[in-house]
Design brief:
Length: 264
């Protein structure tokens, strides 16, 4: 398999579908992963409870996760169920679908840069990454970090490996979170400047691993504190740790301090 779908879905398979047309007896849907093949979601398969109005459950244009219950390729019939799909299955399937779409988009962009068919790049990359990482996007995330060498080791031709790595790096770069605020520190001691400097240095040293802090003077006694981290949770923890340490040290040294968070 090379990232291409079978022509027909299998019984029991979860599929992504777009509601196309609603009738009195059910809804006709188009299967997104199977070239827009049409399937029927009968009213009896919408919910375990009584369905008075189908549009209370589905509407035209809506994306839904359905389970395949019957397939007849000769007649071109596909029967589907909504009531047999659990909330967990729905969330998992949508996530899987979105990640596959993102992976295909990255490979298609690489193909465009190489001026070749998207299928050529997908065929060269898809199965190799899926076999190595269990999922193509997970593999592309690794490629974004490690570079084209990873793909070359898996037997991907060099031009394709370089193009895919370049696009993956551009599209999957982690966005950093930045938080900031103003720290006010004061000391009336003769060596007050040194005491404030000590508080600021210890605050910088307290910054947790994985985050970065910058502290610079706005105009005594005000100092701007900036925190940069890979995610919001770490940035929040780092800001709290840095500020608390600065205030703790300045108070231990007989000074005073306060902090005001910057509002976005």
């Amino acid at each position: 398999m090379t990232g291409r779908r079978r022509e027909w879905p299998r019984v029991g398979e979860l599929v992504i579908a777009t509601v196309h047309r609603i009738t009195d007896y059910g809804a006709y849907v188009l299967l997104d992963e199977y070239g827009g093949k049409e399937g029927l979601l009968h009213i009896s398969e919408i919910s375990s409870s009584w369905v008075r109005n189908i549009r209370d459950w589905v509407r035209e244009g809506q994306k839904v996760v359905l389970k395949v219950i019957r397939v007849n390729p000769r007649r071109g019939h596909i029967d589907l169920s909504l009531r047999r799909v659990s909330d967990f299955e729905k969330k998992r399937k949508f996530l899987e679908w979105k990640r596959k779409r993102r992976a295909r988009s990255i490979l298609a962009t690489a193909a465009n840069r190489l001026n070749v068919r998207a299928g050529e790049v997908i065929e060269a990359v898809w199965d190799r990454l899926e076999g190595e990482f269990g999922e193509v996007l997970a593999g592309l995330e690794a490629v974004a970090e490690e570079g084209p060498g990873l793909l070359l080791e898996l037997g991907v031709p060099e031009p394709i490996a370089k193009a895919v790595a370049e696009v993956a790096r551009e599209r999957m770069r982690k966005k950093e979170v930045k938080l900031a605020g103003v720290l006010t520190l004061s000391s009336l001691a003769p060596d007050g400047v040194n005491r404030i400097r000590k508080a600021l240095l210890e605050a910088e040293e307290a910054c947790p691993e994985g985050a970065r802090t910058s502290i610079y003077i706005i105009g005594a006694p005000r100092y701007r504190v900036e925190i940069t981290a890979g995610d919001y949770k770490l940035a929040e923890r780092a800001l709290r740790t840095v500020v608390e340490r600065a205030l703790e040290v300045i108070r231990e040294l007989g000074g005073e301090g306060s902090f005001e968070r910057e509002k976005k």
